[in-house]
Amino acid sequence: MLKVWNMKQQQQKDAQAEGQGQKKKKVTAAQLRVQKDLSELALGSTMRTDFENPDDILNFSLTIEPDEGMYKGGSFKFTFVISNNYPHDPPKVKCTQKIYHPNIDLEGNVCLNILREDWKPVLNLNAVIVGMQFLFLEPNASDPLNKEAAEDLRTNRENFRRNVKTSMTGGSVKGITYDRVLTR
Amino acid sequence: MATDTITNGTVSRARWQHLDTILATASPYADEDYVPGPNTVSALESSKILVIGAGGLGCELLKNLALSGFKDIHVIDMDTIDVSNLNRQFLFRQSDVGKSKAEVAAAFVEKRVPGVKITPYNGKIQDKDEEYYMQFKLIICGLDSIEARRWINSTLIDMVDESNPESLKPLIDGGTEGFKGQARVILPTLTSCIECQLSMHAPRAAVPLCTLATIPRQPQHCIEWAHIIAWPEQRKDDLLDMDDPEHVSWLYQKALTRAQEFNITGVTYAMTQGVVKNIIPAIASTNAIVAAACTNEALKLATDCAPFLSNYMMYTGDSESGLYTYTFEAEKKDDCPVCGQLAQNIAVDPVTTLEDFLGTLAERAEAQLKKPSIRTEGKSLYMRFPPGLEQSTRPNLSKKLEDLVSDGEEVGVSDPAFAIQFKFRLNFAK
């Protein structure tokens, strides 16, 4: 019986070989998952994605333009790098601008729990971008990456608000010059 | 230990006495069709099987399988032997350091168990195609990476051909991490697969970035800080290579300085290597137990002498939870991106436009897609969302299929209305 199966297999293989020859690359599980996540993104009017290479959906950038809160009027750009181990591994997210924000350091690292210690494969890209958007509506002084900014937010909210304004226009706060990020 | 004696060119069966007893005895638990006796023994001996990984688990597996009566074993591993492997990877000796794990392991077992043939392949599992995997009766994994597991899992699932039962290759997956381990049996497309169970893998324990950046409490926090924050900040042009002693020393010094600032003691060079490479000490006994469970499953699957594991056995031997195992049946996920939907062959007219093709998908009974997005492995053919991607893929809609895909290429189709994704193999009608 085994022999018969082998013969059948050989026949099928021959038929395939005749038709195609080369082995075809398959759609990977990570890509399928990203494809699904992208189709479920709820970007709203304040977020936009850009794909430098439309064929590469594992690398893209996200622009957030908050329409309320202290960061209103700014345009914040992040890169997303997704590995082939997604969704086991979280996407790597970095801010491409130098901005004044308690949860984002000057190198662009972002402190968002679901990007690191609380990531789970059941989460998706939408959960991440919602979390990112929330960082701009409610900057969080208790998880500081930029210690000075967090300290300002904690001790003097009005002063912090002014510093945000200054930094967004490309001004400097406490000797550090930030990138201009205003939309207009 | 019984050894084989060769008299007049025949190998004595003395070594296999216990195996022969098991395989010659009927069992009320065995499959109804199970016929004990010499035919079962020869079925076992003629089973060609594949072991993926020749490391901690792989060494145990190869030894166990050879001593369980398997005679035609193939082994794949892309790694070379490191001096730190020698404490538990017992098929390797000091003089083997730097050589291929697969080759050394194969030669060692062949020498110790006369009559067994072990064929090594020194390379990646991704080098091999479906035709290669098709030759085996079953596949046993002793891997340390989830990525490799996902690859072999999806490959074996894609190989399943409904018209050919032989194309279904049982996958036995062993895994260990410190004192914890797991063995599972996967029947591609029939039972829960590795992708279905992906969320069961414990994520790597991580410390919040802000803890690292502001108030470290442990020496490990200082090392992670040096790794994640100091390196990219101060040496962003150098690609970190943990096998380069200068790089490790740099991280070590940075971590040490930071630890001193916060009055933390305990940062060492070895700890720096361990934290950055995420090394969890490998425990030889965990490997031995998990490999034994996997070998047992291989023997049962190959001979039908007893029911096989259904389908997940976890083991822990750490001091906190005590010695404990639990077996349960992991369920198949309906919306699993890998086994939820098999690639279907559809015949397409190569001169049809992509837009018309997507239109036909909407009409197909099994799909009825309203807003499909479609990709091949390397190309976004049409992504309905997000807007930027839609705009840049829209021109493809008016192109002919033959200009976008090759004959027989696989496409993934997703639709927000469905949790599952569809896979189609587009065969050009001639």
Automatic annotation (TrEMBL), chain A:
Top EC class for this record: transferase
GO molecular function terms noted in the UniProt entry: ATP binding; NEDD8 conjugating enzyme activity
Chain spans, region Disordered: 1-26
Pathway connected to this protein: Protein modification; protein neddylation
Keywords: ATP-binding, Nucleotide-binding, Transferase, Ubl conjugation pathway
Family: Belongs to the ubiquitin-conjugating enzyme family.
Record's protein name: NEDD8-conjugating enzyme UBC12
Native source species: Lithohypha guttulata
UniProtKB/TrEMBL annotation, chain B:
Gene Ontology MF terms in the entry: ubiquitin activating enzyme activity
Record Pfam families: E2_bind (PF08825), ThiF (PF00899)
Pathway in which this enzyme or protein is active: Protein modification; protein neddylation
Limits of the E2 binding domain: 346-429
EC number: 6.2.1.64
InterPro entries in the record: E2-binding (IPR014929), ThiF/MoeB/HesA (IPR045886), ThiF_NAD_FAD-bd (IPR000594), Ub_act_enz_dom_a_sf (IPR023318), Uba3_N (IPR030468), Ubiquitin-activating_enz (IPR035985)
Keyword annotations from UniProtKB, A to Z: ATP-binding, Ligase, Nucleotide-binding, Ubl conjugation pathway
Annotated catalysed reactions: ATP + [NEDD8 protein] + [E1 NEDD8-activating enzyme]-L-cysteine = AMP + diphosphate + [E1 NEDD8-activating enzyme]-S-[NEDD8 protein]-yl-L-cysteine
Highest taxon listed in the record's lineage: Eukaryota
Its biological purpose: Catalytic subunit of the dimeric E1 enzyme, which activates NEDD8.
Homology family: Belongs to the ubiquitin-activating E1 family. UBA3 subfamily.
Protein name: NEDD8-activating enzyme E1 catalytic subunit
Organism from which the protein derives: Lithohypha guttulata
